[in-house]
Amino acid sequence: MKKTGLIILVIGILITIFTGFNYITKEKVVDIGEIQITRDKKHSVGWSPLIGVAVMAVGGGIMLFGMKK
Q1: What is the pLDDT of residue 66?
Q2: I want to staple 46 with a disulfide (CB 3.0 to 4.6 A). Which of 5, 20, 26, 66 is the partner?
Q3: What global pTM score does this model have?
C-alpha cells in the first residue's frame, strides 16, 4: 500500500509542476487535385496546480493511513 501511495504522490508532484501541455495537428485547408494546402493547428491542454496538490494529499493519506500487512 505504501508503494501505491508513493506512486500517487509522485504523480501529484508532476501534475503540480507541469500544469499543461501543447500539441499540434495538421488541418487540410484546400484540396484541389494534386495541390493540397495544410496548416498546423496548435492545441493546449491545461489544468490547475490545485489538482496536483489534491492528488499529493491523497497519495500522502494512502501512505500514512494505508493498511499494513
Answers
A1: 80
A2: 20
A3: 0.68
